[in-house]
């Protein structure tokens, strides 16, 4: 399923109306009908429903929903934050129709009294105040309406996006706290970025029958089971360890041997045939005992036990046997390790996954990425991405899609912006969105497992962007399955790795932990 920005959705709407000749009122009718259907599932016939409408087309969608609810035996009333004469033409048209269905229309100033009635308060609120065009700060009557809705404690169905949420970035200060959001046509990026994702509740997509040619105008895509299933590499019965590829992991230093082991374990659990784990000589004996299934190699190190620049020659020799390389977890940040990473990026002959200190080595100088001869996958968390872009982690979090796209465009690399609903960005602007936002994944070493899994998929012949997307999906579903059995708190990164094969098996059997399209469609 495609994901879009607000501007992309406006362009799609415009093409459907002006280019294909579809009546705009018909689109509004379908949108409002979908909202009404979702609302009707949440309360019994006869329930009083308050539909709070703004002056734009979002308010018109709310008016259509109110009309259908009235026809089905509910008791809707519409409250407006603007004068009807100031509403958009399509909204005015649908507001006028309400009289024939006996739906009362009044000012939003009545909202506090209606929502606070004792013994006879409404059963549901439909938020149709602000649409995808909203940016900035909510003020005036709309702000007052949002505060009243949130204070009521009543269940809320939001139209398109919760009012007050930025549809592109998910930024939200004062915003409606919805139980369900019925997003129109295609889901918006802001519904997968926090805090907007938290305000949206469950996301349901209202199908507006957008033709495939226009869906392609959307720059995003969900990492749904249907999409990623086709990227899973084959496992022929006659295959051997060489068939499934060698992975080279360059990681670790004193105090951070676990990062190296978890990266190697992630690569092995993803299905790679052989994992070579190259670590500083100072920690080689320790690492040998951590993951007996991997092959370890000792590399030259400095007096502090961190990899020295002269280790590059040995790394290149090991790489000659492999199909992919993962580098960075637990390396430490010294001038020597930074020099090694920069040289590796420019000389590596294999697809390379960079994480953790491998990314920190490039902070302030992204030039080596432009000189790379092979595909590069970067897997930063917000802090690491901020250092690469020269901004703060909070600035990255304020607009994760924009940050991921910018780094991909500036470096030509595939970028995995880790976090709740991880993003996978390509240099051409395509942005894929992970379906998982689970606190079970918020544990030390989780990112190391993901790095190894992506490198393991590369070794099995999966293309770089697809390996990143499949790795994100399997990693997220593994976390969900572990949490379902052991609880959200206390999940260990090694457990995530252990469940990667289960996630892959369930995906291939059509039994992934999430619906096939990722979201419910009405």
Which terms would index this structure?
522 residues; alpha/beta; Rossmann fold; UDP-N-acetylmuramoyl-L-alanine:D-glutamate ligase; eleven-stranded mixed beta sheet
Task: Give a written overview of the molecule.
The chain is an alpha/beta fold. It folds into two domains: about 1-220, 3-Layer(aba) Sandwich (Rossmann fold), CATH 3.40.50; about 225-515, UDP-N-acetylmuramoyl-L-alanine:D-glutamate ligase. It is built from 22 helices and 19 strands. The protein has an eleven-stranded mixed sheet, with helices on both faces. An eight-stranded parallel sheet has the order 4-3-2-5-6-7-8-19, with helices on one face. Strand 7 (about 180-185), helix 7 (about 195-200) and strand 8 form a beta-alpha-beta unit. Helix 2 (about 25-40) crosses helix 3 (about 55-70), helix 16 (about 380-390) crosses helix 18 and helix 20 crosses helix 22.
Q: Give the percentage of residues in beta strands.
A: 5-15%
Major β-sheet strand ordering: 1-9-18-17-16-15-14-13-10-11-12
Q: Alpha-carbon distance between the termini?
A: 14 Å
CATH architecture of the largest domain: 3-Layer(aba) Sandwich
Write a brief caption for the model.
The chain is an alpha/beta fold and 522 residues long. It has 22 helices and 19 strands.
Secondary structure blueprint with pairings:
Blueprint: E1 2-3, H1 6-19, H2 24-40, E2 48-53, H3 57-71, E3 75-80, H4 89-97, E4 105-107, H5 111-115, E5 124-128, H6 140-152, E6 156-159, E7 180-184, H7 196-200, E8 202-206, H8 212-215, E9 220-222, H9 225-228, E10 246-250, H10 257-269, E11 274-280, H11 284-288, E12 295-299, H12 312-319, E13 324-327, H13 335-347, E14 352-354, H14 357-360, H15 367-370, E15 376-378, H16 382-389, H17 393-398, H18 400-411, E16 414-417, E17 423-425, E18 431-433, H19 446-459, H20 464-486, H21 493-498, H22 500-508, E19 520-521
Parallel strand pairs: 2-3, 2-5, 3-4, 5-6, 6-7, 7-8, 8-19, 9-18, 10-11, 10-13, 11-12, 13-14, 14-15, 15-16
Antiparallel strand pairs: 1-9, 16-17, 17-18
């Amino acid at each position: 399923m495609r994901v879009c920005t607000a501007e992309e959705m406006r362009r799609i709407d415009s093409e459907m109306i002006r280019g294909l000749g579809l009546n705009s009122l018909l689109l509004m009718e379908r949108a409002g009908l979908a909202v009404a259907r979702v609302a009707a599932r949440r309360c019994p016939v006869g329930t009083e429903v308050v539909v709070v409408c703004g002056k734009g087309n979002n308010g018109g969608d709310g008016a259509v929903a109110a009309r259908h609810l009235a026809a089905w035996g509910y008791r809707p009333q519409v409250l407006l934050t603007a004068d009807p004469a100031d509403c958009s033409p399509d909204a005015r048209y649908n507001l006028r129709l309400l009289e024939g269905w006996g739906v009362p229309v009044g000012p939003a100033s009545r909202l506090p009294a209606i929502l606070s009635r004792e013994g006879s308060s409404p059963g549901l609120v439909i938020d149709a105040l602000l649409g995808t065009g909203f940016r900035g700060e909510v003020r005036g009557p709309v702000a007052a309406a949002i505060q009243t809705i949130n204070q009521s404690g009543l269940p809320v169905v939001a139209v398109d996006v919760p009012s007050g949420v930025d549809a592109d970035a998910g930024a939200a200060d004062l915003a409606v706290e919805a139980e369900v959001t019925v997003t129109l046509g295609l889901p918006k990026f802001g519904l997968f970025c926090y805090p907007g994702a938290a305000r949206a509740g469950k996301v349901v997509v209202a199908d507006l029958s957008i033709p495939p040619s226009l869906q392609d105008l959307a720059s995003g895509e969900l990492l749904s089971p249907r999409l990623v299933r086709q990227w899973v590499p084959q496992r022929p019965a006659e295959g051997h360890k060489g068939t499934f590829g060698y992975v080279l992991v360059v990681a670790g230093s004193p105090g951070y041997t676990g990062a190296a082991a978890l990266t190697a374990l992630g690569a092995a659990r993803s299905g790679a045939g052989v994992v070579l784990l190259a670590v500083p000589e100072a920690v080689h004996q320790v690492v040998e005992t951590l993951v007996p299934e991997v092959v370890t190699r000792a590399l030259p190190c400095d007096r502090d036990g961190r990899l020295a620049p002269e280790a590059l020659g040995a790394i290149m020799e090991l790489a000659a046997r492999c199909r992919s390389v993962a580098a960075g977890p637990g390396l430490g940040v010294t001038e020597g390790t930074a020099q090694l990473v920069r040289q590796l990026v420019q000389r590596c002959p294999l697809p390379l996954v960079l994480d953790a200190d491998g990314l920190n080595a490039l902070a302030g100088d992204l030039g080596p990425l432009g000189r790379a001869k092979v595909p590069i996958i970067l897997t930063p968390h917000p802090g690491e991405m901020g250092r690469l872009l020269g901004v703060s982690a909070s600035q990255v979090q304020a607009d994760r899609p924009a940050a991921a796209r910018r780094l991909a465009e500036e470096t030509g690399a595939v970028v995995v912006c880790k976090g709740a609903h991880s993003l996978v960005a390509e240099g051409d602007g395509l942005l894929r969105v992970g379906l998982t936002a689970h606190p079970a994944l918020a544990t030390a070493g989780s990112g190391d497992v993901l790095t190894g899994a992506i490198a393991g998929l590369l070794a099995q012949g999966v293309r770089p962007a697809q390996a990143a997307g499949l790795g994100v999906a399997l990693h997220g579903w593994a976390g969900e399955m572990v949490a379902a059995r052991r609880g959200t708190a206390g999940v260990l990164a090694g457990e995530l790795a252990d469940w990667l094969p289960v996630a892959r098996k369930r995906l291939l059997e059509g039994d992934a932990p999430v619906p096939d399209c990722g979201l419910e469609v009405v």
